[in-house]
Design goal:
- By secondary structure, this protein is an alpha/beta fold.
- The protein has a single domain (8-148, 223-443), classed as Luciferase-like domain (TIM Barrel), CATH 3.20.20.30.
- It is 37% helix and 15% strand.
- The protein is built from 15 helices and 13 strands.
- The chain has helices at 38-50, 73-77, 91-96, 114-127, 142-147, 156-176, 233-242, 253-269, 291-302, 307-318, 340-348, 354-359, 374-388, 402-417, 430-435, and strands spanning 8-14, 55-59, 102-108, 132-137, 183-186, 191-193, 201-204, 209-212, 225-228, 245-248, 278-288, 368-373, 392-396.
- Strand 5 and strand 6 (191-193) form a beta hairpin.
- Helix 4 packs across helix 6 (156-176), helix 7 (233-242) crosses helix 8 and helix 13 packs across helix 14 (402-417).
- The radius of gyration is 22 Å and the shape is globular.
- 51% of the residues are buried.
- GO terms for molecular function: monooxygenase activity; oxidoreductase activity, acting on paired donors, with incorporation or reduction of molecular oxygen.
- Keywords: Flavoprotein, FMN, Monooxygenase, Oxidoreductase.
- It comes from Paenacidovorax caeni.
- Residues 28-388 form the Luciferase-like domain.
- This is FMN-dependent oxidoreductase, nitrilotriacetate monooxygenase family.
């Protein structure tokens, strides 16, 4: 009998008060207003490691949500990803109190220079002994572009063109500047690095230029594990070329299966293997010791959620100010320069009026929510993995740290009993933990062409 696929789980978080399920920061047990303290993050990291999570995936956005009602009043009142702090500065503290969990951290291409960014990533990969992943985003709010001195966002597909160029230069730095064995640290001979094994990178791209040596010696993974979330036509092509982990939004396992097959085919089209990509769906889980307890907890969470906060967040994702429409007035989505897949999903699901949209945000988000005792939750997670042909989940927070404590205490043992979840960490880098094929990107990945 074929071995059952293990289910991969990341904690999905953001360095802010309100992340995905808006309004729940007001819950009396929620601690997200403490996100500006190290203790908040180190405790979360330790909870996740006890629960044998793959890691913590930290979202980010450069900018803020000012589409809904044409301003930021609701965004500020409801703490809708504002204020938002830098996610990268959290990693060292969490790594210091853990040994195994990975860190998938978001960085927006247009907000960084690849020469300096490559050093930042290498530094953290060294400090964590190879536990760093990068979620590559191209930006989707005009407010961030204005903050960076631009008139507004560049065209959707051109942002991916910039990301391709950014990655090519980064690959050259990470993979090709320092040969294996360049560092010998020979004190007796006074030779730390062999000059003949360190090479300048020359890059003349459409967006970036460089002629320089990578400032850091190689880290355990060299290139971090590469995550991505775009599923537009251009995003699919980008994922097929580069991504090792992709986050998709899907309302049903059947929809997830369709997206998964498209992504795996995109990888094949790029000369890679279908299993070179791990595919994750974002979900919320409300478990209880009994089904009744889970339902009570779910009702309690709903009482603190903000449906309008969720709608304001979605407005930024689609570029449509839903506040301009009456409750029953048909919404004109049009062609968005923000997240094209978000607008497409709304139209496909028939969310064509503000009332229908608000009905999707009763928990402050449109994410799939699984409520039940441990067996019921495990049944549903297995169904998503098996029918949806996915690899795992981004487990979004409802109440911090209760969401992840409950999952680790109630759901993980049930999944372990079914042979669907690890019982211990295998050790090694994040890439080794995810794929079991070594620390480095495989030779068929486009980054490998720059190796010496």
């Amino acid at each position: 009998m074929a071995r059952k696929k293990h289910i991969h789980v990341n904690a999905f978080n953001m360095n802010c008060v309100g992340h995905i399920h808006h309004g729940l920061w007001t819950h009396p047990r929620d601690q997200s207003t403490q996100h500006g303290t190290l203790q908040y993050w180190t405790h979360i990291a330790q909870v996740l490691e006890r629960g044998l999570f793959d890691g913590i995936f930290i979202a980010d956005v450069i900018g803020y949500y000012d589409v809904y009602q044409g301003g930021v009043d609701l965004t500020l009142r409801e703490a809708i990803q504002l204020p938002v702090n830098n996610p990268w500065l959290l990693v060292s503290a969490m790594a210091a109190v853990t040994q195994h969990i990975g860190f998938g951290v978001t960085a927006t291409v247009g907000a960084h220079n690849p020469y300096v960014f490559a050093r930042d990533v290498t530094t953290l990969d060294q400090l964590t002994q190879g536990r760093i992943g990068w979620n590559i985003v191209t930006g989707y709010v005009d407010s961030g572009a204005r903050g960076l001195g631009q008139e507004g966002l560049a065209a959707h597909d051109s942002r991916y063109d910039r990301a391709d160029d950014f990655l090519e230069l980064s690959y050259k730095l990470w993979e090709g500047s320092w040969e294996d064995g360049a560092v010998i640290a020979d004190k007796a001979r006074r030779i730390h690095a062999l000059p003949g094994k360190v090479h300048p990178v020359v890059h003349e791209g459409p967006f970036y230029r460089a002629n320089a040596i990578h400032m850091s010696a190689p880290s355990p993974q060299r290139t971090p594990v590469l995550f991505q979330a775009g599923t537009s036509a251009r995003g699919l092509r980008f994922a097929g070329q580069h991504a090792e982990g992709v986050f998709i939004g899907a309302r049903t396992p059947e929809a997830a299966r369709e997206a998964s097959r498209q992504l795996r085919q995109a990888a094949v089209d790029a000369g890679r293997q279908p299993d070179d990509i791990k595919i994750y769906v974002g979900v919320a889980v409300v478990p209880g010791r009994t089904a009744a307890e889970a339902q009570e907890k779910y009702a309690e969470y709903q009482a603190h959620a903000s449906a309008e906060g969720g709608l304001a967040h979605f407005a930024a994702s689609t570029g449509v100010d839903f506040a301009r429409y009456g409750l029953e007035e048909p919404i004109a989505f049009g062609q968005s320069n923000a997240i094209q897949s978000a607008a497409a999903a709304a139209q496909q699901q028939g969310w064509t009026t503000r009332r229908k949209l608000l009905e999707q945000f009763t928990l402050g988000s449109r994410y799939t929510t699984i409520v039940g005792d441990a067996a019921q939750v495990a049944d549903e997670l297995e169904r998503w993995v098996d029918v949806g042909e996915i690899d795992g989940f981004n487990l979004t927070r409802l109440v911090v740290p209760e969401t992840w404590e409950d999952f680790a205490t109630l759901v993980v043992p049930e999944l372990q009993n079914r042979g669907r979840y690890r019982t211990s960490y295998a050790g090694g880098t994040l890439r080794q933990q995810l794929f079991g094929a070594g620390d480095r990107l495989p030779q068929r990945h486009p980054a490998a062409r720059w190796r010496r």
